[in-house]
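Quick log. Single chain, no ligands specified.
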Amino acid sequence: MVTCPKWTTKDLIGHLSMVLSYTVATITGHRPENTTAAADWADALGRWDGSRLAAREALNRPANQPIRSPFPAGGETITVGDWTRRLAHEFAIHRLDAESALPTPVGTRFAPEFAEDGIDELLAFLGPRSWPQTEREGVVEVRAGDRSWTIVLRAGERPAPGDGTPDVTLIGSADEVYRALWGRPHAAETTGDTPLLAPLAAP
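-> predicted structure:
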């Protein structure tokens, strides 16, 4: 795949099956399945179908139902609704990867509202709970459309939302910034101390 050169399409299917299995485990408290690589395509597709159906059933719970947090950092209670949102963006980004393997890519573009939510989900929800501690110091501003986010980097701490004068700014349409933050080809622009964006890489 062009956007993930180290992966084949079968690898991607295997990854998404594990994500779905982990989703079920997070919601139900059971042990995850599909934690090893599939033997062949038939095995991969069988796991995909099983994981997909199990995840659909697990997610058919009240959106405000609390679930066990799978993230290394603390934070507010995680709910089924949070995890549904997490999956929406996990699969949206990997859709781009799958499409990049086509002989003629289809050129998917995400609606501004969806892409903005994806940016917010990473910068305000997923990232602060999963980014590792950084040794960098600085302020990162992300701007997409009419919205902006500010992330503060402090040595020995995880990056976190905050305030301050930006040392680097990532700016563009919501679709382009969404792709940029997830390390996919994009046309977003960066001004300032570009290396400060590294700690914000999607997990």
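Residues 1 and 103 are 11 Å apart (CA to CA).
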